[in-house]
Amino acid sequence: MTKALSTSIFAFAAAAVAAPAMADEVNVYSYRQPELIKPLTDAFTEETGIKVNVAYLKKGMVERLQAEGDRSPADLVLTVDISRLNAVVEAGVTQPVISDVIAANVPEAYRDPEGHWFGLTTRARIVYASKDRVAEGEVTTYEDLADPKWEGRICTRSGTHAYNVALTSAVIEHHGEAEAKTWLEGVKNNLARKPQGNDRAQVKAIWAGECDLAVGNTYYMGKMLKDTEQQAWADSVNIVFPTFEDGGTHVNISGIALTKAAPNKENAIKMMEFLTGSKAQEVYASANFEYPIAPGMEADPLVQSWGEFTADDVNLMTLAGHRAEALKLVEEVDFDG
Ligand code: FE
Hints:
The protein has helices spanning 2-17, 34-48, 61-68, 82-90, 100-105, 162-175, 177-190, 199-207, 219-225, 231-235, 265-276, 278-288, 301-304, 316-321, 323-332; strands at residues 25-30, 51-56, 76-80, 94-95, 118-130, 154-155, 213-217, 237-240, 251-259, 291-292. 43% of the residues lie in helices and 16% in strands. It binds fe (iii) ion.
């Protein structure tokens, strides 16, 4: 039945625009990793018969889409972080999607009002705290991270990484630029070492006794627990969901956008609908330990075991809007230096 629907939509599209006959396929540019995307694309192909071709990119997605222009083979882009999604939209290489299915699956807070980008999952940026050296309740807010009591005890990745830029953007939104700079300076003064490595490397450093607190995304806890080498790192920490003093826990998204050139637009929209639907949302939850975005979907039991939190209600586009300011502050305080 689904297959018949897809064929009829395709026939309609072909007739309407006299497009050349195309294979039943969809092309994706992805910053997200094959281990996560493959199970999703396999499930989509199984359900619809539409083949998915994925180009896994490390960088330069916007530049590539711009260079390819109308002749780009890409239909969809998959990435994490609101600023990266916003950058693709601002480059003018996306088009809006209007879909009742997606609108029902993705809460308004997690999609572009104009329909240029849609969240697929959420993740919180939280604190990993040493089980041995940090007592319960010792750190409860993001503001706490700048408290001198943590001097020489915090580890984090680069301040210029998208995850940390988004967090700093949230600090700017809550406290203004001047206070955000003071906060960044405070956190920098508390670092045990120069920012380096990825989020998991910070937890490893706690395990190794180099620091007591680390900033990282929630799903890495699940990934570490599933890895024989990294399990010990995960076991050495507790998860703390900090809040802003006047807000909730900082959350970011992974998301998707339809390209302006999209040669397989109908198939692409079907895939967007699929990825926001329950089957794919469950894969995101169980394979990558992210929070499903669709209402009524539950996180993986392991993820639920870490506790509940209230997402900060700062608008994602507002966060993206503070990106340049946040990066400027990171440089001004020489956070990575
Ligand atoms: Fe990540």
